[in-house]
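sorry for the late reply, my laptop died twice this morning and i had to redo everyting from scratch. anyway the thing you sent over, i finally got around to it. pasting the sequence first so we're on the same page, its 113 residues, then the predicted structure underneath. double check i copied it right bc i was rushing
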Amino acid sequence: MSDRGFLEKLLDGASIEWMPLGEVGEFVRGNGLQKKDFSDIGFPAIHYGQIYTRYGLEADKTYSFVSPELGQKLKRARKNDLLLATTSENDEDVVKPLAWLGGGVGVSGEMML
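ok and here's the structure:
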């Protein structure tokens, strides 16, 4: 049985530089998108629940759209942003990442990019 902790096992002796997350990137919380806002056409949007129900680890197209008017008000992810669900009904899905590889897309308030 090893006394090494999870992080030590994960790093396996690799040298790393520790830094605050704010130095790694900018974290932005989404806003104002609910499932009832979805439409068949319009501005592309991702609801936090879709990160763990509809998407894998990367995507460049959305399953949902909102009106162009709402789309103008939403926070937007850009190509190569990392989207994170900040809430879930189970622990496994909290902070599940989605690498966004498409163009500008609106994001809901229960996620960060």
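The longest helix spans residues 6-11.
thats about all i looked at so far, will dig more tmrw
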